[in-house]
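re: ur question from earlier - yeah i can do the single chain one, its not a big deal. heres the input i used so u can compare w yours
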Amino acid sequence: MPAVVLAIANQKGGVGKTTTTVNLGSALSNQGIPTLIIDMDPQANATSSLGLDKKPGKGVYEPLLSGSDLSSRVISTGRKNLWIVPSELDLAAAELELSSESNYLTKLRSSINRLRNEYGLRCILIDCPPTLGLLSMNSLCAADHLLVTLQSEYLALEGLGQIVGVIDQLKTAGANPLLSLGGIVMTMYDNRTRLSYEVWQEVANHYPKQAFRTAIPRTVRLSEAPSFGKTIFEYDPASLGAKAYSAFTKEVIARFLTES
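and the output i got, formated as tokens:
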């Protein structure tokens, strides 16, 4: 079976996208599921959150432009069942250079074909930049499903409609006809406020099949962990954040990784 490819995206920054990518990847690997993270964000937050450095010529930049095999860029995170294609300094320039390439929306999909099929991976997580530029578009065209991290505030609902519209555009254009909105996870959830609950319910009403039952709380421990190059399971495995990501991961496994 080819690996399932999940793009984790939101065009707004600071909404728990990278935190979700890293901790979902960690939780999947802890369940014995061979998982790869592809860091498509030039800021390299997923890379640094795992205690790794971005280095010139070691990331997705050259394979993305050429459409060549990405397998040689995979490195170990030092954790069992978890690998990463790190970000690199040149990736910020890829947006401009991609626009002049033929098939500029499907370069990443071409590059990860062998990774999907030949290395025993079961899940590939793509951490997208906080924009809807060509790096994110390539990520969506390479993915089977989009996971949206949505902050628990009303303005976030407007952005959700925008990114759902992008899915429809990519499908209509034939760039990725099989792409689906795989799920919406509420992040930075504050159970002390009525607003957080109302936004969650609004999402669940409009997207009943996509909304995850688990919400990720706003906690200091989740914010601190990346500065130590650790996942929440390494930094504070008994924390509310670790428990939430464990529950969320069980939902992801049941939705995408359980063979029917």
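The longest helix spans residues 155-172. not sure if urs matches, ping me
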